[in-house]
Amino acid sequence: MAKDELMNYEKALEQFEVVIGLEVHVELNTNTKMFCGCRNEFGGEPNTFVCPICLGLPGSLPAVNRKAVESSISIGLALGCQIAPTGRFARKNYFYPDLAKNFQTSQYDEPIAFDGSIDVEVPSGNVFTVAIERAHMEEDAGKLTHIGGATGRIQGAEYSLVDYNRAGVPLVEIVTKPVFGAGAEAPELAAAYVRLIREMVKAMNVSDARMERGNVRCDANVSLRPHGQEKLGTRTETKNVNSLRSIERAVRYEIQRQAAILAKGGSIIQETRHWHEDKGSTSSGRPKSDADDYRYFPEPDLVPVQPSAELIESLRAKLPENPAERRKRLQGEWGFAELEFRDVVNSGLLDQIEETVAAGAKPQSARKWWTGEIARVANAADKDVSDPEISPAHVAELAGLVEAGKLNDRLAREVLTFVLDGEGSPSEIVAKRGLEVVSDDGALVAAIEAALVGQSDVLDAIRDGRMQAAGAVIGAVMKAMKGSADAARVRELLIEMANK
């Protein structure tokens, strides 16, 4: 794959206006699939959650999942959309190797929700209003695994395996209108928008919202046009990006790639593109089809969806707290400064910190652990910090052990590593590995006396009020006891010994 030429980001922004559009796919967490009774469950042996309906066998008839419809309406309401009094499904015809019936049941000209908007705050604190064109119901495709080749993609593969377990899982696709005016913050806006959608559907409990599992994924559309030009530029669509960091990087890359082409008088091809996380680049997929190319026609086996006004209002009444209002409330309850709280929001760890506080931790302590040590460990392991192998209850327990003086920060970090390795809860690990802070005066005095050998002047210095002299002894005691000594108690004992 030839390496793309990229223009300097700032220079690209000087020459071109950035226009983005985002299509977010949200997998719903219903018990069964969209049009059949097969289990909607992540994993499982390949091709075990299938039946004649989701395999499209002759004579099989689909039926709409009522819960999926209700969840879709709830998402539309949360996005400020109008809910259609009637909507119908359509067949989207395309070569789908991962849909056995070779078409996707979706919605075309009559989506369940349309014309909404949502305010999105980016890391700088700027707020952009993103207009929602539509949110429509459809089914997910299966999973292809390409065997052989160097990239894991179909190009160069020897053969492909298909798992239809995911085929037919209910999806809501949320499509924005073109987003203008984000400028240099377009990549950050794209990531912040998807983060907000993820927070929203998770709070509503309509999706597990785990991006690493594909529960939420984004198709990012990017186009450029010279400043002052009215006509939109040709767009590319980077498909199925499934991490916030990757969304931001993919949008930034496309801006720089397209700018380099346009500056040399070239043309942008309307196409889908693939994001390569390892290389930090996109590559060409296929020419992008327009709606006419999919040959939509109404699904003859499904009746129109006609939600009653009473159902819509009952679902509206059940909506959780608005994300912006929730953030404002939590900031006030926790007493965080504006910058502190913005760091929490930008970290994507608001839910984890809130659950940790609810489990008994102090807000500042919960923030410190999640955005500090846990984030560091996750980054070192190249994992999404919002999905570490530790629960908010464990973090609250760890913070409580530090608060009670049973662990110091060094020992707590060690305990955290063992928790992440799956050895058990913090208390279990402390007991099993004997990691509790040593506060026994007898053991501490013995360690202090050993450290004072050759440093008899330390006690004289302490008597004279020069407490900095105690640092060397405290450090020696901590080293001798492998970090398990209660440093505060060591300091107290030194003062007592000096004043005898």
Structural account:
- The protein has helices at residues 9-15, 66-78, 186-203, 244-263, 309-317, 323-334, 338-347, 350-358, 363-380, 392-403, 409-420, 426-433, 441-452, 457-463, 470-480, 487-498; strands at residues 16-27, 82-83, 90-93, 103-106, 113-121, 127-139, 143-147, 159-163, 170-176, 216-226, 236-241, 271-276, 281-287, 297-298.
- By secondary structure, the protein is an alpha+beta fold.
- The protein has three domains: 9-315, no CATH class; 321-433, no CATH class; 441-498, Arc Repressor Mutant, subunit A, CATH 1.10.10.
- The strands form three sheets. It has a nine-stranded mixed sheet with strand order 2-5-6-9-1-10-11-12-13. A three-stranded antiparallel sheet has the order 4-3-14, with no helix packed on it.
- It is elongated, with a radius of gyration of 28 Å.
- The model has no long low-confidence stretch (mean pLDDT 87).
- The largest beta-sheet arranges its strands as 2-5-6-9-1-10-11-12-13
How would you sum up the global shape? elongated
Strand and helix order = HEHEEEEEEEEHEEHEEEHHHHHHHHHHHH
Work out the radius of gyration. Answer: 28 Å
